[in-house]
Write a structure and sequence with these properties.
NAD(+) diphosphatase, hydrolase activity, Nucleoside Triphosphate Pyrophosphohydrolase, NudC-like_C, metal-binding, single chain, four-stranded mixed sheet, six-stranded mixed sheet, 2 domains, 308 residues, alpha+beta
Length: 308
């Protein structure tokens, strides 16, 4: 990756699309409003089973182990959701009571990087959508039970007819650098030893994304930032976040004040150390382990580190 001669030192891109942002199926809204409720698509469909912890089976070639939808009924099964259509095949998902841990099923964190673009998009959508259904069974207005409609993309209240749609909670994630060769990385106390990453936090009501970046930088590490710039996004269905990636610059001489109880440590790290950590296959380099490749944080850090 080479730098445009007119670009400033902070004008780096992500090194590649975030792994959980990959998707190839057609998920147009009109697919969810078929007169037969998706029954015709069901006959050619493939089913993705997801357990309560977001795990699903894969085959020996790291492909999703999909089953014929008709194995689960003559028409769309109760509580199944339509993920999309591709090449004449519809893709569905439903919750299974089977405990996938017994059979080595993978989840997005452990196996998302192994999946193809199509499979990664299917599982990411399924985990997020099924998780929303698990927590949206009762109306927030009148308390009556809700039922799924529109092939799983909405729920209707049986009491007041209110229709509710899947929620996504926006969160910013920001790489802070000094405009030269250092990046500010921090670690939470609950993380594995030596794991450091960029800062992140949820967007508050009435707050712009840029203002959230500035607030989180001050709250988490006590550092004022400038030149806030958008990089890209990634769904993070744990349970329903959308990570919005940004870069910002800060003065390396500014005092670092880790947030009590949230940030155990924060420090400036030189590009050479980051590059070595990226090449270490998970081993610590100078007390530094970076986020796994399945996260947008990894793509942001790598994008900054290799931008020459």
């Amino acid at each position: 990756m080479s730098r445009d001669a007119t670009a400033g030192p902070g004008s780096f891109p992500l090194d590649a699309a975030p792994l959980l942002s990959r998707s190839t199926v057609d998920r147009r809204e009109g697919l969810r409003d078929t007169p037969d409720g998706g029954a015709e698509m069901w006959t050619s469909g493939r089913m993705l089973l997801v357990d309560a912890r977001g795990r699903t089976p894969i085959d020996a070639e790291s492909r999703l182990d999909l089953q014929p939808a008709v194995d689960f009924g003559d028409g769309p099964a109760p509580h199944s959701v339509l993920l999309g259509v591709q090449d004449g095949t519809s893709y569905w998902a439903m919750r299974t009571e089977h405990d996938g841990a017994q059979d080595g099923w993978i989840n997005l964190r452990s196996g998302g990087a192994l999946l193809s673009d199509t499979d990664a998009g299917l599982l990411t959508t399924a985990v997020g959508l099924l998780g929303w259904h698990d927590n949206a069974r009762y109306c927030a207005i009148c308390g009556a039970a809700t039922v799924p409609v529109r092939t799983g993309w909405a729920r209707t209240c049986t009491g007041c007819d209110r229709e509710e749609y899947p929620r996504t909670d926006p969160a910013v994630i920001c790489l802070i650098h000094d405009g030269a060769d250092h990046v500010l990385l921090a670690r939470q106390p609950v993380w594995p030893p030596d794991r450091y990453s960029v800062i992140a936090g949820f967007v508050e009501v009435g707050e712009s994304l840029e203002a959230c970046v500035e607030r989180e930088a001050l709250e988490e590490v006590g550092v004022p930032v400038t030149d806030v710039r958008y990089l890209g996004s990634q769904p993070w269905p744990f349970p329903r976040s959308l990570m919005l990636g940004f870069a910002a610059t800060a003065d390396r001489d500014a005092a670092i004040t880790p947030a009590d109880g949230e940030i155990e440590d924060a420090r400036w790290v030189h590009r050479d150390v980051v590059l070595a950590a990226l090449d270490s296959e998970g081993d610590a380099v100078d007390g530094l382990r970076l986020p796994p490749s399945v996260s947008i944080a990894h793509r942001m850090i790598r994008g900054w580190a290799i931008w020459k």
